[in-house]
Amino acid sequence: MGEQSYEAQAREIAASDVAMLIGGLDTGKTTIALEAVRVALDEGRTPVLVDADVGNSTVGPPACVGMKVFRSKADLATLEQPDSLHFVGTVTPSRLVLQHVVATAAMVDRAKEQGDLIIIDTTAVASGVAGETLKYHKTELCRPDKIVALQRGEEMEPVVGMLRRFLGAEVVTAPTDPELTPLSPDARARRRLEGFETALAEPLERWKVRPTVFAPTLPVGLNLERLDGVLVGVQDASGGCLGLGVLSHQEGALRVTTNVGEGMTGLRLGSMKLDLDTFESTIVNLRELMFGI
Ligand SMILES: Nc1ncnc2c1ncn2[C@@H]1O[C@H](COP(=O)(O)OP(=O)(O)OP(=O)(O)O)[C@@H](O)[C@H]1O
Ligand SMILES: [Mg+2]
């Protein structure tokens, strides 16, 4: 059933049209995805990586699904610069399943216009109710013709069985490479901070924003102070995300700090706050923030 080596997995992905990698933390998803990009480039294809891992991002900043088109191996050196972004608003995918799944599907649609092989790298939330729900709906909308499930022991068998039974998915399972060195929690946290830092690098500008430019719409009478520190997606008028911003509230005015003022038509509210000095993030519940419930 499953082939064992990473190279074999990468070749299998490079021979498909839309491939999705699933697996728990540190199972080698990203390593294999990038290897598949190399193999595909060698074969003269134009691979596109859709990075749906909003917590430990490879393409673009955390809290977003990023897409990168590879026209040559040189593009592998600029992974943090996405060709396209979709805002999700959290680094914890199980909290915003709808936004997360829609963002991934939207990026896959766009990827199909720009390349001939789509590789979807996913979050490590791959089992349990949240993980299974995410993978079910991602598979439903993105329609991968090949899913590679990496696992320790048999941890992915339930989700794999479900994807086969309900969606007729073609899934190959493979054991995680025992040589693999897991990322320490510290290193993981540092990677995330750096991801936010890169996305919110100078030259930053502070724009005054009207309370009417948000999605979702702010309730009438909201104390705008409550939005201080909230992460936002800086949006264009076609559903795309231009980059990240952080709200601040001073002297009765709401402002957004961002490096992507050009083309901004609105701001999508995230479900987290970000400290612009430390790039530490905290989770917020939007409904609670807006309505106090
Ligand atoms: N064949 C290998 N041998 C040794 N180390 C490896 C191998 N493949 C990957 N690694 C290392 O193991 C770690 C995890 O790999 P990778 O990032 O590909 O996993 P992942 O499943 O994408 O993890 P995450 O869930 O955090 O996104 C990385 O630090 C990577 O450098
Ligand atoms: Mg990864």
How do the helices and strands line up, and which of them pair or pack?
Layout: H1 6-14, E1 18-23, H2 29-42, E2 47-51, E3 64-69, E4 84-87, H3 97-114, E5 117-121, H4 128-142, E6 146-151, H5 157-167, E7 171-175, H6 185-199, E8 205-208, E9 214-215, E10 230-235, E11 241-250, E12 253-258, E13 266-274, E14 281-283, H7 286-291
Parallel strand pairs: 1-5, 1-6, 2-5, 6-7, 9-13
Antiparallel strand pairs: 2-3, 3-4, 8-12, 10-11, 10-13, 11-12, 13-14
Helix pairs in contact: 1-2, 3-4, 4-5
The structure holds adenosine-5'-triphosphate (ATP) and magnesium ion.
pLDDT < 50 stretches: none
Structural class: alpha/beta
pLDDT averaged over residues: 94
Beta-strand residue fraction: 25-35%
Q: What is the CATH topology descriptor of the largest domain?
A: Rossmann fold
Q: Estimate the global geometry from the Cα principal axes.
A: globular
- List SSEs in N-to-C order: HEHEEEHEHEHEHEEEEEEEH
Radius of gyration: 19 Å
Bound molecules: adenosine-5'-triphosphate, magnesium ion
